[in-house]
Write a structure and sequence with these properties.
Length: about 80
């Protein structure tokens, strides 16, 4: 019965077409607001997309260097 309840709530699965969020939107806004400017609604998605791209590139460099651990120098 517990499985039915979990499935009814969504079970923690991602919705189709929804991107993975790797940044904390409130923290991005906090940094921007701290500089005395406002943050548009699309800014969080743009930062998230940029970070995902950065991570994919870092993993690619790690694999190209035949390592199993992504290091800061891969960024």
């Amino acid at each position: 019965m517990a499985a039915k309840k979990k499935a009814a709530r969504g079970g923690g699965k991602k919705k189709a077409g929804k991107a993975l969020n790797v940044v904390v939107g409130s923290k991005v806004k906090e940094v921007i607001k701290g500089k005395g400017v406002r943050c548009s609604g699309e800014m969080i998605d743009a930062v998230n997309t940029a970070v995902i791209g950065l991570l994919h590139a870092a993993v690619g460099r790690c694999v190209a260097n035949k390592r199993g651990t992504v290091r800061p120098q891969d960024i």
